[in-house]
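G., the chain you wanted modeled:
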Amino acid sequence: MSLNLHQRRAIIALALTALPLTFSLAACGSAPSDASPGTSSTPAPNTAGTTRAPQSTTPAPSAQATVQPAPVGGAANASIPAATITFRVLPDQSKATFRVREQLARLPAPSDAVGSTGAVAGQLVLRPDSSIVAESSKITVDLSSLKTDEPQRDNFIKRNTLQTAQYPTAEFVPVQATGLPSPLPESGTAAFKLTGKMTIHGVTKDLTWDVNARRAGPSLTGTATTSFRFEDFGMRPPQVAVVLSVVDEIRLEVSLVAQQVA
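Predicted structure as C-alpha cells:
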C-alpha cells in the first residue's frame, strides 16, 4: 500500500511522541526482581560516625546463672575476733606451792608440809571477749625443782610420790574462765573460776581453780588455788616412819606474774 506524503509525516510524528514513554517504562523495569513483596528496597539511614555492633546469636544468661557465691568467712565468722591478747608468765617472779597436812612423830600437832618452786612457765591467750584460746594457752611447772624445809622429804616425794624422773612436769591447759568480765577490761581486779585440763604423774583430769587476778595495762598478776586427792592422779600418800599420818589432799596455789606480749 502506498502512502502519500501527508500520511508518512503523520506516522513519524506519532512514533516520536511515543518514544519518551518507552524509555520511562524501561527505566521502571530495571529494579531488582528478587525483592520480597511488600519490602522496601531503600536502605536504612546510617548515623554518621557510628558503627553498629554485630548482633550476637548466643542467648543471654539467666538471672540465676549470674548470681555469684558469697565469699567464705563473711557474716558467719563475724563473731570470731581476729585479735588476741597474750600474757607471758615471768618465771623469775611466779611461784607454785603445794601443801599437805601431815602428823610428824616429833611434833605434838598436825602441820603442813609445804613445797614450792619458781620454775613456772607458759602463757595465757585471751580473746577481747575474755574467752580463752585453749590451743595456745598452757602453764607448766617443773616438779623436779620442788623444795620443802626437809631435803629428805624432797627426795622421797620426787622419787616415790611424784616420780619426777618419769613425770618431771605438771601442766595445766585452761579452757574456760567463768565470771571473768567481758569484754576484758584494761585494768582492775576480778574473781573467777578457771577450768581446764590438768596433767600430773601422767594422768590428765578436769580441774577448776579459784582465781583472783589484777590487770594494770600490760601487767597481769593473780593467785589461783585448787585441791585434789593423791589417787586422782594415780599417786599414793607418802608413808614413812617419821610421818604418823598424811591427809589425802593436795592443796595447790600458783602465784602468777605475767606481761602482755601481744
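Residues 82-260 form a domain with the Lipocalin fold (CATH 2.40.128.110).

Shout if anything looks off.
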